[in-house]
Amino acid sequence: MAQIFLVPGFFGFTKLGAYSYFHRVDEALKTNLKQHGIDAEVVEVDTLPTASIRRRAARLIDFVSEHGGLEQDNLHFIGHSTGGLDIRMMLSPGIQLRSSKQEQEIARRTRTVITLSTPHYGTPMANFFTGISGRKLLLVLCLMATSGPGRYAIYSLARLMQQVAHLDSWLGQRNDILDSVAKNLLSQVRPEEGEEIWQYLRCISEDQGAMLQLTPEAMDLFNSAVVDQSGIDYVSFVSGSPAPSSRLLIPGARNLYQSLTHLIYAFCYQLTKSEHRHYPYPRLPAEEQHQSEAHLGFSLSPSTNDGIVPTLSQFWGRTGGVYSADHMDVVGQFQHAHLGEHYSTWMMSGSGFNEDRFERMWDDISKAIAKRQRKRKTQTRASKRSTETV
User: Fold this and answer.
1) Which residues contact 126 (CB under 8 A, 6 or more apart)?
2) In angstroms, how far is CA 198 from the centroid of its own chain?
3) What is the rounded distance in angstroms from the CA atom of residue 103 to the CA atom of residue 61?
4) pTM summary value
């Protein structure tokens, strides 16, 4: 039996309202691993949304211990975005996060580390949040979340947006992002202090340490101290999406919200495309560069990104796959219909990510886990035969 931990990224959560961070990932992993002959338990990690990587990694140790990880012999970790850095720090030899040395026991039992859209060499997006504009935006958000008047203001706005979502269907705007947010989040907003959404926002207001640590400058220091654990297969899965298109910015009668979300994507893409001249991303060998571009369907340069993380910043260890996808597509947050339900994307990036690509990517991830699991089983059998012979 394999135990797989899904670690969310920056601003991450397990569930918020009716939203799941890893949407349909549990189902995809279990189904694909079963086809490869592997039974698996998939556990979504409850992390600290914007806390420092060190605090998030320590929380990960506690979570794994609380959920039976120290009783398993085949642990596999999948970290999306910052989640991949949490895993790397937790497993790095020589770093002590807990006095009980639980991380050493977890490392001994770990077989695979999958990093998905992870900023191993930082992202310029972090520089925005550490700047004046980003800090002001977060300050306003935190003040509203931690004060009574602020909560009631957000509650009132949520109710207004629900009405807009209901009325805009008369204009042909159906199954859009506003409808999704109204159904899965806004309908569950209450002004009472103990509600889930306020607890989530309060966590953000209390600790925003990861914002500084995800800059290219800080990740340069991170990589000099955090090293890979021997005996563990580190595999990176990489995303990149095309540059913003003026075609997608033109509002249409039936896709007004798609145009608005593409405007958000264009803003994020521009923030993320500038490479730091003193802290450049590693360059790929010519053959891997060519293969990556073939998978993406467009050229790969230092400015290429998935709307949040530069694509060249995501390569670490062995490359498991490269996909045309934006940052949230890969965890199931893309435009699609499933079992009669419609799901809207947070950013209309034009990546072309769809159901087939989602299934293929998570099957590729499952294959990486299954390969390591089978190798471990073979090694165990060989060791047992050797012991019996002696």
Assistant:
1) 119, 211, 212, 213, 214, 215, 218
2) 22
3) 6
4) 0.87
